[in-house]
């Protein structure tokens, strides 16, 4: 059951990620990324990180992706026409280099073969995360608020200049 | 109940990260390049959550929380810059936006 769910979520994520890469229209890419984020939320639940799964859906899919979609529709971006690249052969170098990068990461993770993830761990419940966030990681949490403030100011300044 | 090997999660994260990196390098549309960056961030998040669950240590999930917050800030500023770029250049092709001066 658990493995079946894992395979479903993982395949959904990978196929949707390929769609992000292969679609020509930015709107289709953004919607495919939405599917990836949903599938990753499912994987987080399988890992016992319930709070992060909820945050993934609410913040990533609900706020960030909607921001992307909003900008795409606001600017009325059309599909990119297949214009001639200045160095067309570079495009075909992408595949071997992608395979090389993937192989490197696989080489790094291959050592974790026989260690199963314990299922149903309750380490990611909201209460535990909240307690950690407001005790051990209080300073980073507060600094994050300043970062958000600066980002808001930056966005407003950029918008007003245009 | 069967449990899932940790390497499966790491393999999925590796595939997602690779696809995100290729998206950033291959696409010429600035907006889609940002989408590729989000994809890579999510792959790294999956790795962090996997190890957090494996070692039963909350620090990984706290890290993912902060990554999400920073991603939100990055998306807000990046999209503002993209809107400005589009207003001035009428295109999002990064090959045609070589000068920092608008």
Structure characterization notes:
- The complex is a heterodimer of chains A (162) and B (102).
- Chain A is mostly helical and 162 residues long.
- Chain A contains 6 helices and 1 strand.
- Chain A has 2 domains: 79 residues, Four Helix Bundle (Hemerythrin (Met), subunit A), CATH 1.20.120.1200; 36 residues.
- The model of chain A has no long low-confidence stretch (mean pLDDT 84).
- Chain B has a single domain, classed as Helix Hairpins (Orthogonal Bundle), CATH 1.10.287.
- Helix content of chain B is 76%, strand content 2%.
- In chain B, helix 2 packs antiparallel against helix 3.
- The model of chain B has no long low-confidence stretch (mean pLDDT 86).
- Classes of the chains: A mainly alpha (162), B mainly alpha (102).
- Strand 1 of chain A pairs antiparallel with strand 1 of chain B, so a sheet runs across the interface.
Keywords, separated by commas or semicolons:
heterodimer; A: 162 residues; mainly alpha; Four Helix Bundle (Hemerythrin (Met), subunit A); 2 domains; 77% helix; globular; B: 102 residues; Helix Hairpins; elongated
Assembly state? heterodimer
Biggest interface: A-B, 80 and 72 residues
Quick one: overall form of chain B? elongated
Structural class of chain A: mainly alpha
Q: How many strands in all of chain A?
A: 1
Stretches with pLDDT under 50, minimum 5 residues of chain B: none
Order of helices and strands of chain B: EHHH
| CATH architecture classification name of the largest domain in chain A | Up-down Bundle
Q: Separation of termini of chain B? A: 59 Å
Determine the structural class of chain B based on helices, strands and strand pairing: mainly alpha
Largest pleated sheet of chain A: none
CATH class of the largest domain in chain A: Mainly Alpha
Number of helices of chain A: 6
How would you sum up the major sheet of chain B?
none
> In percent, how helical is the residue content of chain B?
over 70%
What is CATH's topology name of chain B?
Helix Hairpins
Radius of gyration of chain A: 20 Å
Radius of gyration of chain B: 17 Å
Number of DSSP E strands of chain B = 1
What is the approximate shape of chain A? globular
Percent helix among the residues of chain A? over 70%
